[in-house]
Amino acid sequence: MTTISVVFLLAFPVYKAVDLETSSLAFIGFQKKHGKSYDNKDEEMKRAAIFHDNLNYIEEVNAQNLSYKLGVNEYTDLTLEEFAALKLSSTDMSEGMGDGFVAGGEI
User: Fold this and answer.
1) CA 27, CA 44: separation in Å to the nearest integer?
2) pLDDT tens-place string over residues 15-26
3) Could you say which residues form the signal peptide (predicted)?
4) Is 15-84 CATH 3.30.450.40?
């Protein structure tokens, strides 16, 4: 039974959720480092909550010992939808390449 427990624990890593005090201090540091200021306290509280959720997501992913690590950056106070609207493009990359563009396999 002990062997099964150890194997189970190794197969499913556990992460510790970030407590609010740690998250609040990290958010203050984040604001200073990235020059973030918000229009009012409500917006600041909203961004702090999003930051906290993202910090927990970062910890959860990093606890899985994957081949990569996530970290805090200037976008950690954005939701996934806000980040996508800000940074992801739906533009067709071949648009505007003209007749001289040859798609792979057509050479």
Assistant:
1) 10
2) 578 888 999 999
3) 1-17
4) no
DSSP state of 102: -
Contacts 24+ apart (CB under 8 A), 64-70: 64/13, 65/13
Whether residue 106 has pLDDT greater than 90: no
* Burial state string for 7-38 with b = 16 or more CB within 10 A and e = fewer than 16: eeeeeeeeeeebeeeebeebbeebbeeeeeee
Q: How far is CA 38 from each of CA 11, 35, 47, 72, 74, rounded to the nearest angstrom?
A: 42, 10, 9, 18, 14
Contact 15, 60 (CB under 8 A): yes
Residues 6+ apart with CB under 8 A from 7: none
Confidence of residue 10 (pLDDT cuts 50, 70, 90): very low
* Residue 7 pLDDT: 45
28 vs 5: CA distance, rounded Å: 40
